[in-house]
Amino acid sequence: MAIPREILDVPRPSSTRVKKSGERYLVIKRTSKRVGKRVVPVELGTIGEIVNGKYIEIRKEPRKSMHPQIDIKDYGEVALCDKAAGKLLEDLSASFELSVAKRLYVIALLRAAYPDIRNRDIQFMYDTSFASEMYPGLALSENALSSFLEKTGMAYSSIQDFMSRRVQSRTKRKLVIDGTLKDNNSYTNDFSEFSRKAAKKGSKDLNLIYAYDLETKEPAAVKPYPGNLLDSRAVKDFIEEYQVHDAFVVLDKGFSTREIIAYLKKVEGLKYLLPLKQNSKMVTDSGILDAIAKPLEGYTDGTIFYNKVKAAEDSYLYAFRDPHIASEQEIAYTAFSKKKGAFSEEKLLSKRKTFGVIVFESKEDMAPLDTYLAYGSRWEIETMFSLYKGILDLDTVNVHGDYRVYSTEFINYLSVIIGARVRKMLQTTVLTETTDSKGKKKVTHVCDVYSYRQVFRMLAKCKKFRLNPEEENKWEPNTPVKYVSQLVEALHV
User: Fold this and answer.
1) If you ran DSSP here, which 8-state letter would residue 107 be given?
2) Is the pLDDT of residue 310 over 70?
3) Neighbours of 392 (CB within 10 A)
4) C-beta atoms surrounding 272 within 10 Å
5) CA 316, CA 333: separation in Å to the nearest integer?
6) CA torsion angle for 274, 280, 284, 287 (degrees, to 10)?
């Protein structure tokens, strides 16, 4: 219905229009924007009303936004990470307020999608990616982020609660516990200390202890420690904090001390497998190295010999010898000792029984094959550390203050979970399926053709465009090249 002339003639601010709403005449602030060759009007909101022939201001005119409207946004990388993440945000909201959970999740999402991102870049990458459309309204500027990290680290119990839930979510789970060092030369946090590798690295470190779930193929928990804290003390604290009970834990040789063995034996319900040093008193007193001659039945990837002895009332030792590795080590040892002019037949005979040998201790009476396979699976945590440091580029501490270290490492841990789930998607997603002349199907998965990094480089070509500013939620995808389109279709992003 047309607006009466007497209403239109009432003096009002410039760049406005009158709109009838029921019996009211609202004054709407307007501007315009060029889209292609057309000038499109853009409404900024109601600023007043015509009442009894006079203009009444409802609110002051909105100031023009300091940030330009963004009509082209990155889509592919964040869409893949968000899809792979699954229920991670929902799980976070069980331990954090929803507003905190959203910010933690989006920061982790951006770190997974853009591996080399720094805190100063997060707001920009949020604004220019589709993460700001998926999870709108988050303040992620450098100053806002600094305050958020500080407050989140202070509320450490929520971080601990989230990881404890993951550790205790399944019974009889298999966990690998190991540590990794990160460069940390900051003088503003108490984690920066010289580690055992300081002389070789030439820098101070932070020590991260991770628990890796062999079933889900992703981290269960993490905790930062000073670089100079002994691994055995750190793992004891780690097991106590996260109540790692009713589990089978595979540990690394660096944790092998009398103190940690005595502690592990006391934890009710905890099964463990701990590699020992070949010259340890427990090994030499047991005589297990003198008769490693039983073939490991059921092992199909080569020839392995073993020996098993009961070392004490509550302790079993398992020794395994790989003859191929033993031969290589004997040749290398002989060549090295000859080069140094220190070759001795007696030393060689003494060393020979240790070549290619690894010895484990456990309080459980286990089948030798299960024992060997359990330790062999620990290489998977090294793959996770490779994802952490190599692909996600998280190998240096870049924050100040202990609270921010706790919250930052927690976010990094969330990014590793997302990254692990992305990698799982690439391994299980079918890219092509063909049938040969004999009717036999051949399935090719994404990971068979493209590496993790290649997938992200290709998805970086996937953008979304908004052509009409008046339709804020209407975004159209671009049309990437054929092989990128094929990948997008396979991944359903």
Assistant:
1) H
2) yes
3) 21
4) 25
5) 30
6) 0
Q: What is the pLDDT of residues 102-119, one digit of tens each?
A: 999 999 999 999 988 888
Amino acid identity, position 381: I
Q: Which residues pair with 72 in a beta bridge?
A: 465
Strand 173-183 relative to strand 72-74: parallel, antiparallel, unpaired? unpaired
From the number of C-beta atoms within 10 Å of its C-beta (0-12, 13-18, 19+), residue 215 rates as exposed
What gap in Å lies between CA 445 and CA 430, rounded to an integer? 4
Closest alpha carbon to 416 in 115, 118, 98: 115
Q: Structure tokens of 167?
A: 């550790």
Torsion angle in degrees (nearest 10) through CA of 356, 362, 366, 372: -30
Using CA atoms, how far residue 481 sits from 48, 75, 129, 459, in Å, is 50, 15, 20, 11
Q: Using DSSP, how many helices (H) and how many strands (E) does the chain show?
A: 20, 18
> What phi, psi does 137 have (nearest 5°)?
80, 20
Q: For residue 457, which of 391, 384, 412 has the smallest C-alpha distance? A: 391
Q: CA-based angle 47:48:53, to the nearest 5?
A: 160
Given this model, what pLDDT does residue 393 score?
63
CA distance 177 to 249: 7
What average pLDDT does the segment 71-95 reach?
A: 95
Rounded distance between C-alpha atoms, residue 426 and residue 405, angstroms? 31
Structure tokens belonging to residue 163: 């990881």
What is the SS3 assignment for 212? strand
pTM exceeds 0.85, yes or no: no
> 32-36, 224-228, 298-302, 393-397: which has the minimum mean pLDDT?
393-397
The arithmetic mean of pLDDT across residues 202-225, rounded, is: 85
- For residues 122 and 138, the answer to whether their CB atoms sit within 8 Å is no
